[in-house]
Every structure is written in structure tokens, then in C-alpha cells.
Design a protein that fits this description.
mainly alpha; 4 domains; 10 helices; 3 strands; about 5% strand; elongated
């Protein structure tokens, strides 16, 4: 049993060694302590630590975690164990890099018509959004589709701005009668 303990304890988990020897985990730990046997660092942990050390200043914790298949908090914990620290400027740069990646992902989702994953406002066509906002202030109503604008019968239409809006991808339709009645009773 002693020979098995000396061979297995440094490289295997304590529960596994206990099951092989047919004793409880506390007995295995106590006997290993008495004999002065210590566990070797796991090779997988060493590989991860080496990767984190090499990419700590060039990648975010999330990027490293994705590549290693572990959580970003695990990356942070291993980096702390290795004594790696980023300056405030480096931390700020990493946060900025992560935010830029998030914005790019949200823009791609918007372009393909998918729902956003975050509440970050992503603008893909600033001129269209500015014009839509200005027209809304003039009395036009933005539909749920965002690119359709309704004009109530009581406002003076801005044809020059509508034409510019059409070039930018907006559509202009008269406000349906039922909605107009609901608007007037609500106001």
C-alpha cells in the first residue's frame, strides 16, 4: 500500500488514490504528509500558465480563456498566482480592446438583422440615424421596423429631407387611420 501511495499520490487525484487503496481521502492525505510526499504540478496547469505568461500583455482574459477552454476568472486567478500584474494604462487598453470587439460583434449582428446580445447602442449608419431623429422631432413617427417613418396628415411634410432619407434607406408612409385616431385620443 505504501509503494502504491508513493507512486500514485504525486500524480493522481486524492479521491482516485483513496479508491485504489480502499481507504478514505483523509487517511491518504495524512499518510502522504507523514511520508513527506507532495503532489507534482499538473502538466495541464503548467501549459496554461505558460500560455497565460506569454499572452498576458497582448490579449484579454476572455480571449485567453476562450483559447484555453477555461473561464476568464480562472485565467485571472492563474495570472495572480504567477505574479503577473497589468498597469492601469495596460488594463485600460485591454478594456478598450474588449469593448471594441464587443461593438464589432454587435454591428455584425445588426447588419444581419439579428437581435443584439447587449444593451450597447451600435450605430451602423450615422447620417440615417441623425435624419430619423430630426424627422421624429418634426412630428414623423418611427415604426417598430426602424426604417419606416409614418407622417401624420396634420404635419407639413419635408420633401427634401424625405428624399435624403430615401437615399439613406428610409421609407415614408402615411400614418394608418386607426393609429392616427389612437394618437389624437392619447394626446
Amino acid at each position: 500500500m505504501m509503494k502504491t501511495l508513493m507512486n500514485l499520490y504525486p500524480v493522481e487525484t486524492t479521491p482516485y488514490v483513496a479508491s485504489v487503496l480502499g481507504v478514505c481521502e483523509n487517511t491518504v492525505k495524512k499518510k502522504a504528509r507523514e511520508l513527506g510526499i507532495e503532489k507534482y504540478a499538473k502538466s495541464k496547469w503548467l501549459e496554461r500558465a505558460d500560455y497565460i505568461r506569454n499572452h498576458f500583455y497582448s490579449k484579454t482574459f476572455s480571449e485567453i480563456g476562450r483559447e484555453l477552454g477555461i473561464a476568464k476568472w480562472t485565467v485571472a486567478r492563474i495570472a495572480e498566482q504567477l505574479g503577473l500584474k497589468r498597469s492601469d494604462k495596460e488594463t485600460s487598453g485591454m478594456k478598450s480592446k474588449a469593448r471594441n470587439e464587443l461593438i464589432k460583434r454587435e454591428k455584425r449582428r445588426m447588419i444581419f438583422g439579428l437581435d443584439p446580445l447587449t444593451h450597447i447602442k451600435v450605430v451602423t449608419n450615422r447620417p440615417r440615424i441623425r435624419l430619423r431623429s430630426w424627422l421624429k422631432a418634426q412630428g414623423y413617427i418611427v415604426s417598430d421596423q426602424r426604417n419606416v417613418m409614418y407622417y401624420p396628415s396634420d404635419i407639413s411634410r419635408r420633401m427634401e429631407h424625405e428624399n435624403r432619407g430615401r437615399e439613406l434607406g428610409l421609407r415614408f408612409l402615411p400614418l394608418p387611420v386607426e393609429e392616427e385616431l389612437l394618437l389624437t385620443t392619447a394626446i
